[in-house]
């Protein structure tokens, strides 16, 4: 209840959704299910901090990053392609993403940046 921004990759969000039976609709595509999970986290989990809502950031590797922003709007951001031969080790990639995201947030940069 004290979190303003939740970060997770598609596997983490799917596991969260499965545990709570959210975003498990077999007739929807994976992205629609991830959006349902993100909206649940943003809208339904009680909040006890000064801000009235939270933001949910869902990474999907080479697929677009999804963000349920503070207002509940779904935002999608393309991921720049990277040749597979350039990928040496993905250890810490998510942590680096979060660090970069938060550094720009602290500089009051828009999500697009």
Low-pLDDT residue spans? none
Structural class: alpha+beta
Largest sheet: 4 strands, mixed
What fraction of the residues are assigned to beta strands by DSSP?
15-25%
Shape: globular
Mean pLDDT: 91
The total of beta strands comes to: 4
What is the oligomeric state here? Answer: single chain
Distance between the termini: 28 Å
What does the radius of gyration come to? 15 Å
Q: What is the count of DSSP helices, taking H or I runs of 4+ residues?
A: 3
SSE pattern, N- to C-terminal? EHHEEEH
Lateral arrangement of strands in the main beta sheet? 1-2-3-4
Describe it for me?
The chain is built from 3 helices and 4 strands, in the order βααβββα. With 113 residues, the protein is an alpha+beta fold. A 4-stranded mixed beta sheet has the order 1-2-3-4. A hairpin with a 5-residue loop joins strand 3 and strand 4. The longest helix has 14 residues. The two termini are 28 Å apart. The model has no long low-confidence stretch (mean pLDDT 91).
Briefly say what this structure is.
The protein is an alpha+beta fold.
Task: Note the topology.
Layout: E1 5-9, H1 10-20, H2 30-43, E2 55-60, E3 63-68, E4 74-77, H3 93-106
Parallel strand pairs: 1-2
Antiparallel strand pairs: 2-3, 3-4
Helix pairs in contact: 1-2
Name a few traits of the molecule:
19% strand; 4 strands; 113 residues; alpha+beta; globular
């Amino acid at each position: 209840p004290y979190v303003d921004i939740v970060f997770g990759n598609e596997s983490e969000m799917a596991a969260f959704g499965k545990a709570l039976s959210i975003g498990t609709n077999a007739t929807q595509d994976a992205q629609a299910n991830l959006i349902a999970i993100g909206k649940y986290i943003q809208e339904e989990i009680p909040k006890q901090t000064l801000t009235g809502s939270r933001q949910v950031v869902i990474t999907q590797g080479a697929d677009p990053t999804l963000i349920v922003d503070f207002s509940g709007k779904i935002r999608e951001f393309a991921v720049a392609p990277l040749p597979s031969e350039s990928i040496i080790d993905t250890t810490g990639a998510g942590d680096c993403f979060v660090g970069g995201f938060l550094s720009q947030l602290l500089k009051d940069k828009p999500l697009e940046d």
